[in-house]
Amino acid sequence: MAKKLIDFVKKHFGDEVLDAHSRLGNDTVVVERHRVSDIIERLRDDDATQMNMLRAITCVDYLHREPRFEVVYILYSIAKKHMLTVRVVVPEDDCNVPTIEHLYGCAAWMEREVWDMYGVTFEGHSDLRRVLLYEEFEGHPLRKDYAKQASQPRLELLGKERDSVEEFNRYVKDKPSEGSRQG
Amino acid sequence: MAEDIYKPIDQDIHSEPMILQMGPSHPATHGTVRFTLTLEGEKVIKCETEVGYLHRGFEKECEEATWTQVFPYTDRLNYVSPLLNNFGYALAVEKLLGIEVPERCDWIRTIMGELSRLSDHLTCIGAGGLELGAMTAFLYAIEGRELVWDLIEQVTGARLTVSYGRIGGLKDDLTPDFAERWAYTRERLNEIHAITHKLLTRNRIFLDRMEGTGVITPEMGVSYGYTGVCLRSTGVAYDVRKDHPYFKYGEVDFDVPVGKHGDNMDRYLCRMEELVQSIRIIDQCLAKMKPGPINTDDPRVALPSKDKVYNTIEGMISHFKIIFEGVQVPAGEVYSYTEGGNGELGFYIVSNGTGKPWKIHVRSPSLIVMGGIHKLFEGGLLADIIPTFDTVNMIGGECDK
């Protein structure tokens, strides 16, 4: 594979590049996490790269490695048809990466997913909430130390929901012949 | 005097926006999705999306299974076109292993993948018609889908949960009479395609609901990570099959239909045209393919034949190793992408050199499409949500992680 994307990043952000390799058709750069937003912005806007599409953001939990997490950005250029994987390493005690929400429309959503599943926070994100799980869920299920069989306590219904269930049960008990409430 | 009578009608009577919860039990929101809409009259001014959760834990389950045991889970991602998920995952693992599959396997994968795409598009078109009141069109589309599923059943042994893909090959070859049965199915599919055009494409009601609704611009589509028909309807001709050919897509001739306006009608028309292209691809594959093996002969990956397992010690050991320990995939990571039923289906997989995946991330088009769906709703009418949500073809199973 052409290594020109790796060279591009090295040329402009040489100090921030921790590692780079090209394997199995994937070009990868591992960069300093505090500059990741600038690097991706440059890759998006420069005429030579035009990485206008963010394919995915995900995270890998290397449980026994230090630093523990790695956030992975997969960038693609529709015009140039080339792809670059940008990875940043994130330590467990300071689980924080700058957001790239302002660069791509879908980034905010994908970052929410990473936060939900791995507990990596994105600094400057405008609305970092869980996306697939509910607010009361404790922990982050795709972390390797979250047991597969773990279960969460059942949620109590809110007051008004409980009232409406009771009202319905009372109604069914009192007037079984009438069927639906509208009848 | 007359002017006074009409005056109050022209005044804006909606002084405050109304909040409306649509879903999760709304018939059009697939059971888990909820939209919290802020309405001004019938106009949607803000939409907050919650995708909900089916509690299957696809990625977590994959990390606990061997590489081969992941296939049944991939069936349940986009359950309208499970074969495409099977092959997408198989391709990712093969990339990491650095192996090539036999030629016939690639042909069969192309054929069965396109059959799945037919099923996916027919379901989406039919269900879309149904939600707008076109029951007849729905019944015809479902007839077409059943015919496709009959073929899939004949080859894989199952209609929905096929688990047909294997690392380095396939579960089975095509049946001997496949081409014959395809010829029959093909005729009927062409008829159904023509009937659907007659029923829907120039239908006044259908046009009024579809044209100019759920509009997305090319820039917005790219920025929100839209792929597949959703992106192509805006005029961006990005198709993984064309831009980065895999299997045998580089050796067959087909067109990538694109739209102009990025509205619901364009998405519908793109799907209709893709049905024709898929039929074209299958025809060419059947004409070009030759007999041969369908599984790789690499003993690290392929299960030995039963003959070898029962009669040779090497065969038996190999069988045990693959079943109990799993295929030993070298350490590393790879992002592999294919064209799924509703967009780019990507697998980012990480191996630590054992028989189980360390991590499998699926770039599911359905989840990503939901990240930008509020852009399609906002500014439109409440009723436009129904056709728009249908034409983006969001599949609940794929939304899940």
Q: If you had to describe this structure to a student in words, what would you say it looks like?
A:
The complex is a heterodimer of chains A (183) and B (401). Chain A contains four helices and seven strands; from the N terminus they run αββαββββαβα. In chain A, strand 1 and strand 2 form a beta hairpin. In chain A, 26% of the residues lie in helices and 25% in strands. In chain A, the strands form two sheets. A five-stranded mixed beta sheet of chain A has the order 1-2-5-4-3. A two-stranded parallel ribbon of chain A has the order 6-7. Chain A has one domain: NADH:ubiquinone oxidoreductase Nqo5 subunit (Beta Polymerase, domain 2, 2-Layer Sandwich), CATH 3.30.460. With 183 residues, chain A is an alpha/beta fold. The longest helix of chain A has 16 residues. The model of chain A has no long low-confidence stretch (mean pLDDT 87). Chain B is mainly α. Chain B has one domain: Cytochrome-c3 Hydrogenase, chain B (Orthogonal Bundle). In chain B, 50% of the residues lie in helices and 12% in strands. Chain B is built from 18 helices and eight strands. A three-stranded antiparallel beta sheet of chain B has the order 1-2-3. In chain B, strand 4 and strand 5 form a beta hairpin. The longest helix of chain B has 29 residues. Chain B starts with a helix and ends with a helix. The mean pLDDT of chain B is 90. At the A-B interface, strand 3 and helix 3 of A face helix 2, helix 9, strand 6, strand 7 and strand 8 of B. Chain A: It catalyses: a quinone + NADH + 5 H(+)(in) = a quinol + NAD(+) + 4 H(+)(out). Chain A: Keywords: Cell membrane, Membrane, NAD, Quinone, Translocase, Transport, Ubiquinone. Chain A: Its main location: membrane. Chain A: This is NADH-quinone oxidoreductase subunit C. Chain A: NDH-1 is composed of 14 different subunits. Subunits NuoB, C, D, E, F, and G constitute the peripheral sector of the complex.
